[in-house]
Amino acid sequence: MQLAELLKEWPCTVKGGSIRVEVTGIEDFAQGVKEGDLFIVRKGRKSDGLKYVDMAIKNGAVGIVIEDEKQLDSLKISVPVIWVPNVLKFMSYGAAKLNRFPADAMQVIAITGTNGKTTVSHFIGQLLKALHKNVIVIGTNGIYINGVEVNIDYEHLTTLQPKHLHKILKIAVSRGVEYVVLEASSMGLAKHRLDDCSIDIGVFLNLAEDHIEDHGSYEKYKAAKQLLATLSDQLVLNGDDSFCRTVGLQAKKKKAYFGLGNRVDYQLQLLAEGLSTSTCCLQSNKGQKVFSIPFVGEHHLQNTIAAITTVSQLGFAIEDICDVVEKLTLPNGRLETIENNLDVDIYIDYAHTEAALRAVLQTLNKTVKRDLIVVFSCGGDRDKHKRIKMGAVASKYADLIYLTTDNPRSEDPELINAQIAAGFSPKQKYEMILDRGKAIETAIRQAKPGDTILIAGKGHETTQTIGSTEIEFSDFESVRLTLQNLLNDHVD
From the UniProt record, which GO molecular function terms apply (predicted)? Predict the structure, then answer.
């Protein structure tokens, strides 16, 4: 596509070079620029893209996009300099246009919330697949088409950058995909990554304090979440959550409320709960149905009714949806149980907020036979306010806690853990083992038959960031290695 064609409907000023040059891509990482790309100059947390203009041109950039008008005259380069009011908005638009706006060819569901985005997105994807529709799910755990992970080279973010997102959506169209289900993080929304995605349904799950340092304040965090309402044609909202209710009241759009309480359009009532299943009754103006789901715990009921409501709003019959709900499975790293011969229940879960940790511990507390053991910590360089709260939640349910590391980044992990321990009850038993693999091993080796172990915070993740170094690390692999070593010890 020629630069002139790409820019003709966007406010801009161009200086130098030719507007007839062919543009093949959008890139904001100079090292990743390829021949034919436009290089987007933006300021990051640690660096300014302006420093890398020469590298971008050397790598093949055919134009440089800026939002500082002063650079129009000061940049003396051989390719066009394009000024736009907001480079992030242009990056979204440019990537979408270069890929022929692929989202327009599908129905797009975007999900936001402090907790539950990944689970609800996978639930919706599973329901649509069971209803014989082709669906792509994009989010924290990766990219899946009809439940099969797609191996594509991209930057792994909860909400993908537009330069990757629209390429992937174009691939989805070519594979006959009809529905897109994606996670809309607060940072993704604030940075305009979904501005050109033609979102049919925006789903609001909940709001709790998180990512405050990233946004600057809780109010800005809320405002970022609310952007999804402006981008969506219709809304599905948690009627049990006050923030979601407020979003619904302010938005003059078609909407549907779901929840476990009253004053909702889709209400899920718990009739009976077993060790691993819940029997529920769905009541809505589109029909009623009694069915079972293979989970227990209030948060799983909330996630299930969110998915059912969304698929119903897409036009599917309640009867048909509820007939396949019992086949739902949790995504990787969400209360995932690890089989073993120790008579110990071992679970791995991504819970890294106060609300998520409470929900998981409440669920496990219903089935624990002896002691409940928790291995966790908090991330460094962010959300310091939640550490004492997560400590209090863990201490309320856990008989024994192993404090360890969870991406401490530039912070001292001992200080992070001290802030967590400040929320413990005076009688709480705990031990600090900073080597996360060693903490997991110790918890398993010291556990007695009948104990339950929760390893929380990282879930599906396969890396650990300590200082400025990212190392390979997996909770699953640590558990597997420990179990294998215990087996070898027994054989010896």
Answer: ATP binding; magnesium ion binding; tetrahydrofolylpolyglutamate synthase activity; UDP-N-acetylmuramoylalanyl-D-glutamate-2,6-diaminopimelate ligase activity
Single-letter residue type at 314: L
373-388 per-position pLDDT tens digit = 999 999 999 889 999 9
Is 59 assigned to a binding site? Answer: no
The model's pTM is 0.92
Mark whether 471 and 454 lie in a shared domain. yes
CATH number, domain of 483, equals 3.90.190.20
Say if residue 159 carries a ligand binding annotation. Answer: yes
Q: Judge whether 99 is annotated as a binding position.
A: no
pLDDT of residue 204: 98
pLDDT tens figures, 154-202: 888 889 999 999 999 999 999 999 999 999 999 999 999 999 999 999 9
Q: Is 158 annotated as a binding residue?
A: yes
Count of the separate structural domains present in the chain: 3
What does the alpha-carbon distance between residue 80 and residue 78 come to, in Å, rounded to a whole number? 7
Instruction: Say yes or no: 166 and 78 in one domain.
Output: no
Of 181, 173, 199, the closest CA to residue 100 belongs to 173
Residue 310 assigned to a binding site: no
Same domain for 320 and 401, yes or no, is no
pLDDT of residue 143: 96
> Is position 49 annotated in a ligand binding site?
no
Q: Is the domain of 149 the same as that of 108?
A: yes
Residue 287 phi, psi dihedral angles, 5° rounding: 140, 165
Whether the CB-CB separation of 332 and 473 falls below 8 Å is answered with no
In a shared domain, residues 128 and 246: yes
Which of 225, 192, 185 is closest to 92 using CA atoms?
192
Report whether 409 belongs to an annotated binding site. Answer: yes
Residue 491 has pLDDT above 70, yes or no: no
In whole angstroms, give the CA distance from residue 58 to residue 37.
11
Would you say 45 is a known binding-site residue?
no
Residue 434 has pLDDT above 70, yes or no: yes
pLDDT at residue 382, as a whole number: 87
Phi-psi region of 308 (alpha: psi -120 to 50; beta: other; left: phi over 0): alpha
Establish whether 216 is an annotated binding residue: no
461 annotated as ligand-binding: yes
407 among annotated binding-site residues? yes
Q: Which domain holds residue 312?
A: 100-327
Per-residue pLDDT reduced to its tens digit, 92-145: 999 999 999 999 999 999 999 999 999 999 999 999 999 999 999 999 999 999
185 is in an annotated binding site: yes
Please state, in angstroms and rounded to a whole number, the distance separating the CA atoms of residues 266 and 305.
7
Is the residue at 90 inside a domain? no
193 marked ligand binding residue = yes
Helix ranges (H only) for 175-297 are 186-190, 212-215, 218-231, 242-250
If asked whether residues 439 and 419 sit together in one domain, one would say: yes
Is 115 part of any known ligand binding site?
yes
Residues 109 and 243 both lie in one domain = yes
492 pLDDT above the threshold of 80: no
229 and 189 co-located in one domain: yes
